[in-house]
Amino acid sequence: MSDTVLSTPAFTGIPPRIALVGNPNCGKTALFNALTGARQKVANYPGVTVERKIGEFLSPAGTRVQLVDLPGTYSLRARSPDEEVTRDVVLGRFQHEAPPDVMVCVADAANLRLHLRLVLELKKLGRPIILALNMMDVAEARGCRVDAAALSAALGVPVVPTVAIKRTGVAGLLDQIDRSMIAMAAALAPSPGTTSCGWSEPSALDLRAYHQEVETILAAALRDAGRPSLATRRIDAALLHPAIGLPFLFLVLFLMFQAVFAWASVPMDMIDKGLGWIQAGAGAALPDGLLKSLLTDGIIAGVGSVVIFLPQILVLFFFILMLESTGYMARAAFLLDRLMGGVGLHGRAFIPLLSSFACAVPGIMAARTIENRADRLATIMIAPLMTCSARLPVYTLIIAAFVPDRTVAGGMIGLQGLVMFTLYAAGILSALAAAFVLKRTIFKGAREPLLMELPSYRLPSPRDILLGLLERARIFLARAGTVIFAIMILLWFLGSFPAAPDGATGPAIDYSFAGMLGHALAPLLAPIGFTWQIAIALVPGMAAREVAVAALGTVYALSETGDALSGSLAGVLAADWSLPTALSLLAWFVFAPQCVSTLSVVKRETNSWVWMLVMIVYMTALAYGAAFVTFHLSSALLGG
């Protein structure tokens, strides 16, 4: 099968562009993964920070097709920023970006009543549409029978049953995509640059008319509505029970943080040994000089100090992907709605906050699903307090250095995992406390009720989980190989020049630009117990949180303790720092001012410099205050 581009007047030699549109929880992402596999990338929409996935696939006719996965929406009558993006993409409102040539509207076959209104709205645009009846296997298992031919006749669009989680479940959709593109070409369809300028937002009268039309279509095409999933009802009876639901959710989160240490220990040891072998080999092969120092003390010691934490980050993402794919994420938002309502937050804020465990950037972007602007701003302002994966290397390093690797509670709980859970809990509680203050001062307003669909439970697709983990690993390693790599080279240069003068008694780094900066900042940070080495690490740490670990690796490699670093950076810190200093640094990173990328996203999402500056000021004040209290309290308790 050749990799060709459909050459017709309709497509003018460029790859046809197809958009996946549909309600949340309809299986769009699974369908996207089934069509594109690993041939996908994550990017942002032009001018906004909503994440989108773009991929490519070959149709049965050998045509190379571009596929875009749009944010889920219930209607083109957009009420949240991510819904606005979907609307603007299908209408062709983004500058320099044509509307899609074909729209594949994905619908849950077992819940057509909720999904067909969007299909009717999309039909009004006058562009080619294919309706993909997804999760047909689930619908049939519930006794739901849909006459696809009758539904196609009633709607006036092609209807194709799909099962996105099965390898053969999208064959019919691929064939229909080819037929639709050929039909467009034969009919000299409108060029991709055509926009739907005549579109107007549906009025309340229009929406009532859509509902009536949906009922008429269902009467003609739905042979049996089936029954709700018995398994889902039984599971929800337990997991949403007032006495069981919240304890179970907290248990899941607790096990997640325990697994971050327990599951990742073996691969981390393997990576550590591999890096040690590479560092020793490079040191033995190269003569003493700047090149050897750059490679061993700068690149390997710096970048390697971050790469070693990849297994822990993948374990964290594995749990998050599992929660999303099984349908439990929506239940978690439901369970926490009352708790979050106590501090004035909307239940939907849970999903952005949980996403912030991975990274504050997508967490802040996920706040676009919150319709109320005050609630959305409050969520954005507290999202960075959740412990992102970039903090994980810092936490892990300090815990490994100062917390014994032993178990408590009769051997059932790892002490290191318990400390990690405590740090995450501190981030959560501080975020809720900040929300409580913000919602009663700056973002006053009545709290809106939580309205959301609870999807049926489903078994996660191993392929989708694997693709998600591979994508996150790629992003992490790309960051280590670009941002962190460049910063480590710069830090090595600043830590190596100018060279120590003749007769110098201190380590060479003391006389370098980095040493000068560290010693200049030391008086400011001395009240919270930070050393000058920590001061150096905090500066590049503003680019990315995990850079602080890499910076410590490079700084200590260039210092007198460089020989010890080849064994373990944690061992070097345990010998060089006091326990109050370590605890103070942990407290700092619970509240630490965020990385540059997070701050830039806050600026773009709020369309204001003010909120970004407010975030910098209040988080810096919290971090310094928490570190100050922690250092002096622990010093007093430990006798100095």
Question: How helical, in percent, are the residues?
Answer: 55-70%
In total, the number of strands is 11
Which structural category fits the helices and strands?
Answer: alpha/beta
Strand content: 5-15%
Largest sheet: 7 strands, mixed
Spans of 5+ residues with little confidence (pLDDT < 50)?
1-12, 43-49, 188-194, 561-566
What's the overall average pLDDT, rounded? 81
Number of helices: 27
Cα(first) to Cα(last) distance is 73 Å
Shape: elongated
Lateral arrangement of strands in the main beta sheet: 2-3-4-1-5-6-8
Provide the gyration radius in Å.
27 Å
Features:
alpha/beta, 27 helices, seven-stranded mixed β-sheet
Question: Can you describe this structure in just a few lines?
Answer:
It contains 27 helices and 11 strands. With 640 residues, the chain is α/β, with parallel strands linked by helices. The strands form 3 sheets. The chain has a 7-stranded mixed beta sheet with strand order 2-3-4-1-5-6-8, with helices on both faces. The protein has a two-stranded antiparallel sheet with strand order 7-9. It has a two-stranded antiparallel ribbon with strand order 10-11.
